[in-house]
Write a structure and sequence with these properties.
By secondary structure, this protein is of the alpha+beta class. 25% of the residues lie in helices and 28% in strands. The strands form ten sheets. It has a seven-stranded mixed sheet with strand order 26-29-30-34-33-32-31, with helices on both faces. Strands 3, 4, 5, 6, 7 and 10 form a six-stranded antiparallel sheet that branches. A hairpin with a 2-residue loop joins β32 and β33.
C-alpha cells in the first residue's frame, strides 16, 4: 500500500524524521518497500494568474500573455499550451528558476516576442500526472506563493508491504493508529459535519445471503453535479497513493477507501429496477464490468442485483450498466461488510484483482460502515451538491463477526519471549492497540478490536506485545540446553543407513510429488480408488499417489528424454490408499521404492556391456535386507502385479506377510511413461523393513568344518529357496553353511527337471564330527527332500 507522508502526519505527527518513521514502521512488522519523492527537484516556480492572453502575431500555436505573480509589474511570457487563457491561475517558472534535469529559465525571445519565464505543465515539474497543457490551479491559490509550498511537494510516497493478516492497515486510519501506538501519541481523525437526510428518497435492501453479507448500507443522494471538479487536495492525495483521478464520485469512493480501508461503490439510481438484492449468481447471468470485460457470474459468487439483473460482483467489481456516467443525476451509495470467505478466491477465478477484493478478502472492520457512509455522503454534498436521503441498513447480527475474548497469562508471556515486560507496559500496549483489557492476578482478559481479524489465540497477543515493545528491546540471551543421549532402540534400523547403502551402490535419491497424474496412475493401478485433491495445482497433479511407481517411472522417462541412458533412482515417502477403516478415510504408509534401467555398469574397456535385469535390482534389495541381520525372515515369491511384467514379478515377504513387489515394468507402460528399454522397479513398506535382529556373539569353533556337495534333481517348478529352507530345518545346529552354486538344465537331465548343486558345511563347536555323523546328516537331508519334493540325487 502506498501513502503520502504528509497525509499520515495530518492524523499523527511524531517528532521523528522520515527515515526514522519508515524504520519504525518496518520494525513493527509493516515492511517499507520504498520511499519516493512526490515531485522532482526544482526551484523558482510560483503561483501566477494570466491577466492577458493574446495570439502571437507571428505564430499560430503561440500565445502572448501577461502574468501577475503578486509583484509590482506584470511578466511577459510566451506560451504554447492550448489551455492557456485569461483568468487562469498557473505555475510560473521565473527567470533564474531551475527545473528538473538542471534546466535553467532565462530571458528569451520567441519569434520576436520577449518571454520572461515559462508556464509549466505537471510533466515539466517532474510530477507524475497526465495532462495536455499547463497546470490549472484553483482560483484561490495565493499569487506569488512557491508552488512547492502550495502543493506540499516536499513530501514522499511511502510504499508499505503488508502481510495478509494486517488488513487493518490497508487504510490511512489503520496506519495512523499503528504509528500512534508506537510513539504513544493520540491520533487525530478528520472531523466533518454530519450529512443529515433532507429527502425521503431511499431504496429497499434485501439480504438473501446474510452469512456472506451480514451488513449492507445504502443511501440515495439526488440532484448531484457529476461534472464538478474534484478538489486539488483530493486529487493529490489519490495520486500520491497510486490512484488516478477519474470523476468526483469515483474519486470520493477511492478517497474513503484509502482513508478508512472500507471499499464503497456508487450506482446510477436511474438505472436500477426495483429493490437491491444481495444474492448468489444463478450460474448463467452475464455481467459487463466497468472495464468493459464481460463475465458469466458463477453460481457460488455473491452479486449485488436489482429485481431484474445483477449490478455488480459483490466486493470485487462494479457493473458498467449501472455505473455513474456524465448524465447521472441521482446516485445510490453502498457500503457493506462482506465475509472474507465469501469473497476469497472469486476475483482470482475470474481473472480479476481489485483494491476492493484485496481488502474484503483480508477483512474490514464490520463496525465501520456507518462512519464511512457519512464521510462519503458529506464529501459528495460538499463537492457535487445534492440532497441526501436516509441511510437504509439491512443486517444480520447473528452473522456479524463477534469480538473475541483471549486470556493472556504472565507465565506464558515470559516463557515465549524469554524476557519480563512490566505489567503496566503490557496493559498499556494492549489498550493503545484498541483492545479491552481486564487485569487479573498473573493474567489479562483481552477483548479484541473489531478491526483485528488476526487475533484468535494467546500467541497472537504475545506477538503484539513483543512487536510494540520492540524486538530490539528484548535482550539477546543464549539458550541453555542440557545434552542428553537420544532414545534409540538398537533393533531399529535407521533410514539413513538404507539411504547410504543405496547411494553407495550407485543410486541417486529422488524426491517426486505426492500428487500425480490420474491418467498415468490409472495405468499402474487400474480400477483402484484414489484420493482426489479438491483444489489441485493442475489436472496432471490432481490425485494422491497409490505407490512410488508412478513418480519414479515418470522421473526415469524425464531423464531418458534428456539422454541419460543409465538411471538408478530410489525414493522414500508416503503413499495414500483410500481405506474406510482408517480414521481419516485414507491409509498413509511410508514406502521405499527404487528403479534401475540401462547398463549394469558404465561402459568400460575391461568388461562386457550388459543391460540390467531382474536379479540386478534383486541383489540391491537383498543388500538392504542384509542390514536387518534377519535375512531368513525375508523371501521372494512369484506373483502378479498390474504394473509389472508377467513372469518377471515377485512378492516381497517378511514372515510370510507381503510387504512389497519387485519386477520388470510391464511393456504396456513403456510408451505412456516415455521409457526406453527394460526397466526394473521395486517398492516395499518401510515399517516392515526397519526392524533389525540384534546379532549375538558366538564362539568360533576350534574343530574342523566338513563340506559335502549334493546334486539334486527336482521338478522345474520347485523353488530353490524352498529346497534350501528345508535343508536348514533338517540340518539343524550342525549345518553352519549352505550354498547353491549351480543350476543345470539340459543333457543328462530329464525334460521338466532341473539339477541343483548345493554345498553343505557341517561343523560342531564341541568336537570333531565323525564321518558316520556327517553321512547320517546328509542322508537325513536327502530323505527329507525326497519326501517333500520328490527329489533324487543326480547320478
Amino acid at each position: 500500500m502506498k501513502f503520502s507522508e504528509s497525509w499520515l502526519r495530518e492524523w499523527v505527527n511524531p517528532a521523528i524524521s522520515r527515515e526514522a518513521l519508515s524504520h519504525q514502521i518496518t520494525m513493527a512488522g509493516l515492511e517499507v518497500d520504498g520511499i519516493e519523492p512526490v515531485a522532482a527537484e526544482f526551484s523558482g516556480v510560483v503561483v501566477g494568474e494570466v491577466v492577458e492572453c493574446g495570439q502571437h502575431p507571428d505564430a499560430d500555436k503561440l500565445r502572448v500573455t501577461k502574468v501577475n505573480v503578486g509583484a509590482d509589474e506584470l511578466i511577459d511570457i510566451v506560451c504554447g499550451a492550448a489551455n492557456c487563457r485569461q483568468g487562469l491561475r498557473v505555475a510560473v517558472a521565473m527567470v533564474g528558476a531551475v527545473l528538473p534535469g538542471d534546466f535553467k529559465i532565462k530571458k528569451a525571445k520567441l519569434r520576436g516576442q520577449p518571454s520572461m519565464g515559462m508556464l509549466c505543465s505537471y510533466g515539466e515539474l517532474g510530477i507524475d500526472i497526465e495532462s495536455d497543457g499547463i497546470i490549472e490551479l484553483p482560483q484561490d491559490a495565493p499569487l506569488g506563493m512557491d508552488i512547492r509550498e502550495f502543493l506540499q511537494l516536499d513530501d514522499a510516497v511511502i510504499d508499505v508491504d503488508l502481510t495478509a493478516n494486517r488488513a487493518d492497515c490497508l487504510g490511512l486510519a489503520g496506519l495512523a493508529r499503528e504509528v500512534g501506538v508506537l510513539n504513544r501519541q493520540a491520533v487525530t481523525e478528520p472531523s466533518w459535519e454530519a450529512a443529515v437526510a433532507v429527502s425521503d428518497a431511499q431504496v429497499k435492501i434485501n439480504l438473501l445471503e446474510p452469512q456472506a453479507c451480514p451488513r449492507y448500507l445504502g443511501r440515495v443522494v439526488k440532484n448531484i453535479d457529476v461534472k464538478a471538479a474534484t478538489p486539488l487536495w483530493m486529487q493529490e492525495k489519490l495520486r500520491r497513493s497510486g490512484i488516478r483521478s477519474i470523476d468526483p464520485i469515483v474519486d470520493i469512493t477511492n478517497f474513503v477507501l484509502l482513508e478508512f480501508g472500507q471499499p464503497m461503490h456508487a450506482f446510477d439510481l436511474a438505472k436500477l429496477e426495483g429493490d437491491i438484492q444481495v444474492r448468489l449468481g444463478n450460474g448463467a447471468e452475464k455481467l459487463t464490468l466497468l472495464d468493459g470485460a464481460e463475465v458469466t457470474v458463477p453460481a457460488d459468487t455473491l452479486v449485488i442485483a436489482d429485481s431484474v439483473k445483477p449490478l455488480a460482483l459483490a466486493g470485487v467489481f462494479g457493473g458498467e450498466a449501472s455505473g455513474v456516467s456524465d448524465t447521472t443525476q441521482d446516485i445510490l451509495l453502498e457500503c457493506a461488510f462482506f465475509a472474507p470467505l465469501a469473497i476469497m478466491g472469486k476475483s482470482r477465478r475470474l481473472g480479476l484483482h481489485t483494491d476492493s477484493s484485496h481488502r474484503f478478502e483480508r477483512g474490514v472492520d464490520p463496525q465501520m460502515q456507518h462512519k464511512v457512509m457519512d464521510r462519503a455522503t458529506r464529501l459528495v454534498l460538499d463537492i457535487c451538491g445534492g440532497e441526501a436521503g436516509p441511510v437504509v441498513e439491512a443486517k444480520s447480527d447473528e452473522h456479524l463477526p463477534k469480538q473475541v475474548e483471549i486470556r493472556l497469562r504472565r507465565s506464558k508471556l515470559d516463557r515465549i519471549l524469554g524476557h519480563h515486560i512490566p505489567d503496566s507496559d503490557v496493559t498499556e500496549i494492549l489498550q493503545r492497540l484498541g483492545f479491552g483489557v481486564e487485569v487479573a492476578a498473573d493474567s489479562w482478559l483481552v477483548t479484541t478490536a473489531t478491526y483485528r481479524f488476526d487475533m484468535a489465540i494467546e500467541e497472537d497477543l504475545i506477538e503484539e506485545v513483543a512487536r510494540i515493545y520492540g524486538y530490539n528491546n528484548i535482550p539477546n540471551v543464549a539458550p541453555v540446553a542440557a545434552l542428553s543421549m537420544p532414545v534409540h532402540k538398537e533393533s531399529e534400523l535407521s533410514l539413513k543407513r538404507v539411504r547410504d547403502l543405496l547411494v553407495g551402490r550407485g543410486f541417486q535419491e529422488a524426491v517426486t510429488y505426492s500428487f500425480v497424474d490420474p491418467k498415468l496412475q490409472s495405468l499402474v493401478h487400474p480400477g483402484q480408488d484414489t484420493m482426489v485433491l479438491p483444489h489441485p495445482i493442475s489436472s496432471e497433479m490432481s490425485v494422491m499417489r497409490l505407490s512410488m511407481f508412478t513418480g519414479l517411472l515418470t522421473a526415469v522417462g524425464y531423464n531418458q528424454a534428456r539422454q541419460q541412458g543409465r538411471v538408478r533412482l530410489f525414493e522414500t515417502g508416503l503413499r495414500f490408499v483410500p481405506d474406510l477403516n482408517a480414521e481419516s478415510g485414507v491409509r498413509q504408509q511410508a514406502m521405499l521404492g527404487a528403479v534401475i534401467t540401462g547398463l549394469q555398469q558404465d561402459e568400460h574397456w575391461s568388461m562386457e556391456s550388459k543391460t540390467v535385469d531382474f536379479f540386478d535390482l534383486k541383489g540391491d534389495l537383498e543388500a538392504i535386507i542384509g542390514l536387518t541381520v534377519s535375512t531368513s525372515e525375508f523371501s521372494f515369491k512369484e506373483a502378479s502385479h498390474t504394473a509389472l511384467h508377467p513372469g518377471q514379478c515377485a512378492e516381497i515377504l517378511r514372515n510370510d506377510r507381503v510387504i512389497g513387489y519387485i519386477g520388470a515394468v510391464h511393456p504396456s507402460l513403456e510408451k505412456p511413461f516415455g521409457l526406453n528399454g527394460k526397466t526394473i522397479v521395486f517398492e516395499l513398506e518401510l515399517d516392515a523393513l526397519l526392524h533389525a535382529k540384534l546379532p549375538l556373539a558366538q564362539a568360533v569353533s576350534k574343530f574342523p568344518a566338513n563340506r559335502r556337495d549334493i546334486a539334486l534333481v527336482v521338478d522345474e517348478s520347485v523353488a530353490a529357496s524352498d529346497v534350501m529352507n528345508l535343508i536348514r530345518k533338517v540340518g539343524e545346529n550342525q549345518l553352519v553353511g549352505l550354498n547353491l552354486f549351480d543350476v543345470y538344465l539340459g543333457k543328462g537331465v530329464e525334460p521338466g527337471k532341473k539339477s541343483l548343486a548345493i554345498a553343505l558345511t557341517l561343523q560342531d563347536t564341541t568336537r570333531t564330527l565323525e564321518e558316520k555323523e556327517i553321512a547320517e546328516t546328509v542322508d537325513s537331508v536327502v530323505s527329507a527332500l525326497k519326501v517333500e519334493f520328490n527329489a533324487s540325487l543326480r547320478e
